[in-house]
């Protein structure tokens, strides 16, 4: 086993809200890091304490703007040049994950580009949650610990004690994820079939399966404009469901997302804090993933298995 190096936790600026919770859950203080700004908008990252020989965990979700991604790259580079022993990027929300393949001519595979940049910067390991596409793990030639929000969602759904429970996927692409919840909760599953005219615009959704007099839970990894979730909820209620709720890992919530959710048939929507909410909504409830990440960081640091974290 490699020699035991001291552990140090650091946070990017826009993920500090979550990093402080992770730090509290792990019983470890956040390290001191400074971001120096220039008048033209350029910035530089500097550690205010030594990281030489340390096992460094850098916490930063890479939601927009791209400054968050670039700040993480600079944090990695600075730690590498300061002789850190190991550098682990903790990325609760992995941005650009929807760009996982060439789905039309002459487009970038953005997720692979981000993976290459992180690797080139000098990261040794990635810890992330609910990637939009599982195959992104294969874009890296370093270990990737892929966590699942199901580890907190499934116990919470059980505690709700809903009768006639049905798990729903808002689209065909999410059937594997929904099937996991269906299996662990012992509930049947239905599928939404959607047609898009372009990105972020859903023309039509049809529900495949029986939802009449059921309490339906929609499962998804992320909600951007929430158009799919909102339309799916409306169709499910129109098909005779008793209630419909959504459990979504990453609350991107851009554009008209809040209006879509508030005006939809959704009873409530549960999200995690991998991305901070832009504003409050009576329908949106937040469940924290801080303990999951704190436990994983400790297990990775102590060379222990993290398989107990997985409900997948």
UniProtKB/TrEMBL annotation:
One of the GO BP terms on file: 5-phosphoribose 1-diphosphate biosynthetic process
EC number: 2.7.6.1
Keyword Disulfide bond (UniProt): no
Protein name: ribose-phosphate diphosphokinase
Keywords of this entry: ATP-binding, Kinase, Magnesium, Metal-binding, Nucleotide biosynthesis, Nucleotide-binding, Transferase
Gene3D superfamilies assigned: 3.40.50.2020
Domain Ribose-phosphate pyrophosphokinase N-terminal residue range list: 7-122
GO terms, molecular function: ATP binding; kinase activity; magnesium ion binding; ribose phosphate diphosphokinase activity
Domain of life: Bacteria
Signal sequence interval, chain numbering: none
């Amino acid at each position: 086993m490699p020699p035991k190096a001291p552990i140090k936790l650091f946070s990017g600026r826009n993920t500090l809200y979550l990093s402080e919770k992770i730090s509290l859950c792990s019983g470890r203080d956040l390290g001191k890091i400074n971001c120096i700004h220039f008048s033209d908008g350029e910035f530089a990252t500097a550690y205010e304490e030594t990281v030489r020989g340390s096992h460094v965990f850098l916490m930063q979700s890479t939601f927009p703007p791209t400054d968050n991604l670039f700040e993480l790259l600079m944090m990695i580079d600075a730690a590498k040049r300061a002789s850190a022993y190991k550098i682990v990027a903790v990325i609760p929300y992995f941005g650009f994950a929807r760009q996982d393949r060439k789905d039309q001519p002459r487009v970038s595979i953005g997720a692979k580009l981000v993976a290459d940049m992180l690797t080139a910067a000098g990261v040794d390991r990635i810890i992330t949650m609910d990637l939009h596409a599982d195959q992104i793990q294969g874009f890296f030639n370093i270990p990737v610990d892929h966590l699942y929000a199901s580890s907190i969602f499934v116990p919470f759904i059980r505690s709700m004690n809903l009768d006639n429970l049905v798990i729903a996927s808002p689209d065909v692409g999410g059937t594997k994820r929904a099937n996991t919840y269906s299996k662990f909760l012992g509930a049947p599953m239905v599928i939404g079939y959607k047609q898009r005219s372009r990105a972020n615009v859903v023309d039509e959704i049809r529900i495949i399966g029986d939802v009449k007099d059921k309490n339906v839970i929609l499962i998804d990894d992320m909600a951007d404009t929430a158009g799919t979730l909102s339309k799916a909820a409306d169709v499910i209620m129109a098909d005779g469901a008793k209630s419909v709720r959504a459990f979504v890992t990453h609350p991107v919530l851009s554009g008209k997302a809040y209006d879509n959710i508030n005006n939809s048939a959704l009873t409530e929507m549960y999200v995690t804090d991998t991305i901070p909410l832009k504003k409050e909504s009576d329908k949106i409830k937040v469940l924290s993933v801080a303990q999951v990440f704190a436990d994983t960081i400790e297990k990775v640091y102590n060379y222990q298995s993290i398989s107990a974290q997985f409900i997948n």
